[in-house]
């Protein structure tokens, strides 16, 4: 069953990607005032990074399960795992952006300057770059899956884009966990 018209996959991918990235960049750039989001208690804001690391670890698991499922020909399990991965990504991003807007910006790095410059920033930069690149890849693979019946998906670029999206997604989520460990475990 078609949920997305086939001829709209590319344009929908572009629109969703631009809107998503605009929201992310606006939040990261301080362009969304904190008054636009509901006020939360400090304990809730402090809890978000810990919840997000659990979401990231779970997403790594669901992406891996989805990848294994499709390699074994289990389309139904693949679909469930990848939709779960997308839902986890959306939850992560919602919580992250909420905290970013509510607190007025990113958390400063509490560790030594040398670690900040030569370890933290490069890891963070790669994590962010991969997350940005993943957005249109994930949307495209997802929309192709919604636009074609399962029997036709092999004749589309769903698998190719899906492989790139999954690989980059795994690396990005993994680097996000490293960022968390640096911020909240090693230099807390």
From TrEMBL:
Membrane-spanning regions, if any? 50-68, 80-98, 118-143, 164-187
Q: Which GO terms describe its cellular component?
A: membrane
- Keyword rRNA-binding in record: no
Q: Which UniProt keywords apply?
A: Membrane, Transmembrane, Transmembrane helix
Question: Can you name one GO molecular function term for this protein?
Answer: cytochrome-c oxidase activity
| A Pfam family this chain is assigned to | DUF420
Query: Which InterPro entries does this chain map to?
Result: Cyt_c_oxidase_su3_a-hlx, DUF420
User: What superkingdom heads the lineage?
Assistant: Archaea
Q: Which GO terms describe its biological process?
A: respiratory electron transport chain
Q: What is this protein called?
A: DUF420 domain-containing protein
Lineage at the top is: Archaea, Methanobacteriati, Methanobacteriota, Stenosarchaea group, Halobacteria
């Amino acid at each position: 069953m078609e949920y997305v018209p086939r001829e709209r996959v590319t344009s929908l991918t572009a629109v969703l990607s631009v809107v998503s990235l605009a929201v992310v960049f606006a939040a990261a750039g301080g362009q969304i005032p904190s008054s636009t989001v509901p006020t939360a208690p400090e304990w809730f804001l402090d809890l978000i990074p810990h919840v997000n690391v659990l979401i990231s670890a779970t997403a790594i698991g669901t992406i891996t399960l989805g990848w294994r499922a499709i390699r074994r020909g289990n389309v139904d399990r693949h679909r469930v795992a990848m939709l779960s991965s997308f839902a986890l990504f959306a939850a992560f991003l919602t919580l992250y952006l909420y905290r970013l807007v509510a607190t007025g910006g990113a958390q400063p790095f509490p560790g030594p300057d040398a670690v900040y410059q030569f370890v933290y920033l490069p890891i963070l930069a790669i994590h962010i770059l991969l997350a940005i690149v993943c957005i249109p890849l994930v949307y495209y693979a997802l929309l192709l899956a919604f636009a074609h019946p399962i029997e036709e998906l092999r004749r589309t670029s769903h698998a190719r884009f899906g492989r790139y999206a999954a690989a980059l997604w795994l690396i990005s989520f993994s680097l996000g966990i490293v960022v968390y460990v640096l911020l909240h475990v090693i230099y807390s």
